[in-house]
């Protein structure tokens, strides 16, 4: 009799336990294992650097290991697709830049839809600089505008490949100048920068984090900063924005955002957004970013809704710019 009663109680406990697990009450609190930040580009680049900085700050807030995984290829679409298809549990996240908003206009087949991603908040944004080769005749943007127009499309503009920040900035610049230039694509920023310093190409629109050392060393000529405000970096402080130098309203920044797979539980998304907010207040992270002229986001774009609204605006903006440039999706 006692054995039957014990067996009955054990069966009941198992059933209750199963119900609790199924309903989520017995689950361990998120996170209970390492979180992976997928960067859809090679190690060592700007996106990789910010992801590693954010990973360190998120580790402090989440209380778990945060790993960075580089899944490069196809303009960032391979790594993005990996996260879009990942289990929506908050353990596989994506750090991506402006290229996520331009990809729909540049690629026919992405391997994912942006609706398959949950927006967690914008991380940062950084301006680029318009630089020229040493000895380029024009001094200042007004002279450069006249020089470009007189060249009738012969002046060349280096970039790190279709869809890169330097390429996008160049497209926006060409549209604002209403003058054509010859775009010269390279396999990355390093060879493009090498050739502009060597005088093989005329102009380049490059992220300030990469161009500042060359500007400071006078290895290139600086014509303007692409952001809405002048850079706080001492070496760039005296350089006007392109907007104030003659292209009113010109504003180009390279931004990064954090994403999770669509379907991730709301409670996990909320915890991740709070962790991101805390991470971006980390004095060590803010100091590192500001030293490079990068602005850490502190406005409404840090919220999921604000991030999504900004992203949609960027998609519309770049779709128009890319279409007007006559670029056909690959």
From TrEMBL:
One Pfam family here: TctC
What species does this protein belong to? Cupriavidus yeoncheonensis
Segment forming the signal sequence: 1-28
Q: Is the keyword Repressor in the record?
A: no
Q: Which of UniProt's keywords are assigned here? A: Signal
Protein name (Swiss-Prot/TrEMBL):
Tripartite tricarboxylate transporter substrate binding protein BugD
Annotated family: Belongs to the UPF0065 (bug) family.
Classification via Gene3D superfamilies: Bordetella uptake gene, domain 1, Periplasmic binding protein-like II
Keyword RNA-binding recorded: no
């Amino acid at each position: 009799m006692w054995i039957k009663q014990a067996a009955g109680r054990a069966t009941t406990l198992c059933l209750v336990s199963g119900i609790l697990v199924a309903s989520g009450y017995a689950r361990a609190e998120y996170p209970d294992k390492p979180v992976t930040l997928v960067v859809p580009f090679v190690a060592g680049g700007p996106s990789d650097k910010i992801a590693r900085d954010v990973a360190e700050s998120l580790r402090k807030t989440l209380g778990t290991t945060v790993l960075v995984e580089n899944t490069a290829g196809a303009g960032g679409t391979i790594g993005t697709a990996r996260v879009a298809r990942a289990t929506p549990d908050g353990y596989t996240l994506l750090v991506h830049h402006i290229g996520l908003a331009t990809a729909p206009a540049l690629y026919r087949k992405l391997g994912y839809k942006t609706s398959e991603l949950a927006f967690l908040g914008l991380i940062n944004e950084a301006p680029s600089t318009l630089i020229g080769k040493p000895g380029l005749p024009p001094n200042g943007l007004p002279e450069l505008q006249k020089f470009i127009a007189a060249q009738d499309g012969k002046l060349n503009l280096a970039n790190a490949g279709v869809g890169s920040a330097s390429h996008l900035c160049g497209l926006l610049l060409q549209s604002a100048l209403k003058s054509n230039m010859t775009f010269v694509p390279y396999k990355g920023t390093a060879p493009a920068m090498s050739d502009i310093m060597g005088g093989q190409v005329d102009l380049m629109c490059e992220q300030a984090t990469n161009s500042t050392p060359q500007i400071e060393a006078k290895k290139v000529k600086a014509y303007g900063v692409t952001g809405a405000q002048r850079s706080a970096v001492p070496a760039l402080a005296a350089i006007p924005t392109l907007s104030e130098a003659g292209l009113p309203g010109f504003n180009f920044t390279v931004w990064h955002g954090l994403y999770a797979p669509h379907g991730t539980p709301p409670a996990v998304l909320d915890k991740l957004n709070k962790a991101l907010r805390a991470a971006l207040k980390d004095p060590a992270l803010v100091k590192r970013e500001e030293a490079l002229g990068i602005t850490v986001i502190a406005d409404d774009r840090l919220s999921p809704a604000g991030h999504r609204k900004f992203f949609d605006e960027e998609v519309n903006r770049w779709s128009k710019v890319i279409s007007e440039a006559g670029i056909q999706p690959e």
